[in-house]
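Subject: Interface between my chains keeps coming out wrong

I've been trying for a while to get a sensible model of this assembly. When I model each chain on its own everything looks fine, but I need the whole thing in one frame so I can look at the contacts. Pasting all components below, labels as-is. Any help appreciated, I'm running out of ideas.
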Amino acid sequence: MGHIEPVTPRPELKMWEALNLALDRAMAEDDAVFILGEDVGLYGGSYRVTQGLYAKYGEWRVRDAPISENSFTGLGVGAALVGGRPVIEIMTVNFAYLALDAIINMAAKIRYMSGGQFRVPLVVRMPGGVARQLAAQHSQRIEHALLNVPGLRIVCPATPQDAYWQLRQAIHEDDPIIFMEHELLYFDSGPFDPGAAPPPLHSGRILRDGKDVTLVAWSRMSRLALTAAEELGEEGIEAEVIDLRSLRPLDLPLLLESLRRTHRVLVVEEDCLFGGAGAEIAATLGERGFYELETPVGRLAGADVPTPYNDRLEAESIPQVSTIKARIRDLLKA
Amino acid sequence: MQRDLVKQLLYDMLLARHFEQAAAEQYQQGRIGGFLHLYPGEEAVAVGSLRAADPGDYVVTTYREHVHALVRGTPPEAVMAELFGRSGGCCGGYGGSMHLFDAQRRFLGGYAIVGETFPVAIGAAYWLAMNEEPDCVLCYFGDGAVNQGTFHESLNMAALWRLPVLFICENNHYQIGTEIHRHSAVVEVHKRACAYAMEGRRVDGMDVLAVYKATREALHHVRNGNGPYLLECDTYRYRGHSMADADAYRSAMEVAELKGRDPISLLRKRIREEGWLDSDECAALDAAARRVVADAVSFAEQSPPPEDLHAHVHARPLDLYSGAAR
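Reply #2:
Try treating it as a single job with all components included. I did that and got this:
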């Protein structure tokens, strides 16, 4: 593995390549940036995201950690307090549940508890989502668990371009930031232009204009929503698609602006329905956009079940292009 | 040198004892809220160990940390005002008794979830080692923390990467109301160091000079690149776990017996025997400490409350509903 180099920019990159490039550039620019996580070094990262960085920057800056999620995430907190800019990789969001003490009790609160004396410039990267038959313990979404934690910021890029810039921006910030990646997006390609000015870290993006309904999604679901919208276009239904890119904070102005055009909203969420981010979005649109709404805000989300192993049941447990289209047709009939 | 050191140690312990006594009184009068964990009986640990440290060393400690902050140099009035929840507190009233921080003095905080000091300490030590800086991290914890996963996770990483951390166990024998024989299969905490090929030893935590000497030796070991060290200080707390503790789980006889080995009395006795200070000097130190504590209470009483609920949540003010503005 030692001979494999970090990625060099090309007009089209895979998601993992864009993340790798972002890390490489951040580390080259700032000696305070270091990476720590399971198999990030010699192995190169379980999704190749840290490929070549161990050879380039050495073991202190790309550190293979033992399986001790709470303590190595807490290590990141401690290093951030004294001048570091750690990027902690938690192999999957499922293991992040073991690190919730470090994330919620420590990272999110130290600035506040210390009366602003300490900053916590910490990025915690974690891939998640339903992938391919990984079963209940390896298919979770963690948004709901972190969305309600004051002090945290949560971003969730869905394209290589956004992944690159949002990671660079996140590393630059002085707050703890949860950086959510999706396991099924790592090997998807997309256009990459390092020269294009990046939008603000927490802004949403309109992926497709439409006048009939607004689809609100993030991470992989924004890709599915876009596909659904394009297919519905052939039926004469014009769906606007918003990729939120950030869950905390939320780009509410963009949502309200779209709502004023379409008067109908469907939130498409991979996380479970009950108590999820979609509930926050729907409630807020209900409060602040009530008079623009033709119908109640719809939510299409993961079923409230542990993810089943069987592939057909697994597919049934989360939104698919077909179910998104069906919900939109229903919403337009209402 | 010995005389000046002894004078400092005695003053620190007297200040600690009077400060905590005043805190208890203020709590009983309703001026201090929440949980309040006091340190009487354990003074020799924080005082002996922190006086052996260098100003550049980082300190990470628990929710029973008023004395650690005082010895480190945080002004007593700023500590008392923090207990009162006032703007003049060392954290502006946002942290409280259990969460004292002092960036200027490299005091990385009081942590109130048992076992959190370990990862914070190895994180600071990782940064020091990565940058080849000469400082160390002093990491405090009680005997109750050693059965938390972070103890094992963090000691493993500290030893694996030879991080400059001195782990200091304040073994007061009680995990709130559960005595150590009822919570630990191995009650000699220092023996756990061998699981991580780490040096460890036990010291009499009621003897401030012994703690000071043992800490000097341990820090010498750590500072010279020999990796982390586990120092167990055998001590005792006179009061309940917190002010809310009725202290019904141990006998009055036990408490009285341990008070017979009071760290302040032990040091005074030694001072008399060695002739280091005369009784007037000792009395003057006591009076000075009382004065400082009384002034700290007056300062805290007069300090206004903090006003901005939303300050310090993020690096810059952040409206959760206007992401694009960022």
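Reply #3:
Confirming on my end. Chain B has eleven helices and eight strands.
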